[in-house]
């Protein structure tokens, strides 16, 4: 089955072959880009490989220049600058004078519109009012109230395979676990899971824009219908809550509520799934780390931070507002800047022995963003990750990669594992 389809107990098939995914035209490189800084960047190849990119591809990139230009930083393909050092990412995250986010995803422009994904695509000063309204909704205390629901969901999925001796972890847990929570939070029926996953797969993984445009229209139509329904039949879901929020002394417009729901859709269906898969793969290859966390379950909170540091999945973006020099490169207005958290997490100039995963490291990282755009859902994401690993380790004995199975890693703006066959 394609990744966009889920059925309990059935594995999700691997992504398309390298050849099928890598059909694309080459974009024009701007004249202000030095030819010697135009380099391939394999982490954006949008194909499936059987090598672990965190062990091979990322360290190789860190042997190159501080910043370079790649032809394929987003689907299309769209070229842009790749920033590999953690300290440079932090500086750009904080520099709202020279870099901006509005329109960086291109989803609205893709369908000839100009709405914003809220708060992700907002810049100061507009960002502040919306973020201030949203922060209490996604506060640590509010997210803590979801613990019992999250833990119950994890146990339901684990109970289906824990006595079997094996599972396909991505299809049987990593995909449905966070998605069911997302559907609950927005008041959507669980039966909509397959449709949401189909749209999400196309939006985030299609190498061309045709199918992505169709999916943007479909998601927008669905969310606007849901907003209209909640206005007539309000509840306790996040759409109903958003309809009560204010900014600049007024209620949010329907378009603004939609922009926030679209943000929840993008984050709720993909990022946690990718992280859970990468973290579980690590544990499957490190039985000593399994033992440590079984014997020290309270250390899971610290361990998750190291997993987030070592296995970031997402590359976000900024657009350049003014000429800006970094290393041997000069960004020009309109240039696209790829903010690769996978590269930042493995930066040898920022972390001691970045290729080593130390469960007691307590690292500072940018995996969940940095500065004013730190991930709105970070507190829920952390709880989902912690609870997923806690419940799995509590229910399943020492496990590993199933004999003879080659793990498929998908390279792209969200690095993830397509399929993970585990055995115990």
Automatic annotation (TrEMBL):
<comment type="similarity">
    <text>Belongs to the cytochrome P450 family.</text>
</comment>
<feature type="region of interest" description="Disordered">
    <location>
        <begin position="1"/>
        <end position="22"/>
    </location>
</feature>
<dbReference type="GO" id="GO:0020037">
    <property type="term" value="F:heme binding"/>
</dbReference>
<dbReference type="GO" id="GO:0016705">
    <property type="term" value="F:oxidoreductase activity, acting on paired donors, with incorporation or reduction of molecular oxygen"/>
</dbReference>
<dbReference type="GO" id="GO:0004497">
    <property type="term" value="F:monooxygenase activity"/>
</dbReference>
<dbReference type="InterPro" id="IPR002397">
    <property type="entry name" value="Cyt_P450_B"/>
</dbReference>
<dbReference type="GO" id="GO:0005506">
    <property type="term" value="F:iron ion binding"/>
</dbReference>
<dbReference type="InterPro" id="IPR036396">
    <property type="entry name" value="Cyt_P450_sf"/>
</dbReference>
<dbReference type="InterPro" id="IPR001128">
    <property type="entry name" value="Cyt_P450"/>
</dbReference>
<protein>
    <submittedName>
        <fullName>Cytochrome P450</fullName>
    </submittedName>
</protein>
<dbReference type="Pfam" id="PF00067">
    <property type="entry name" value="p450"/>
</dbReference>
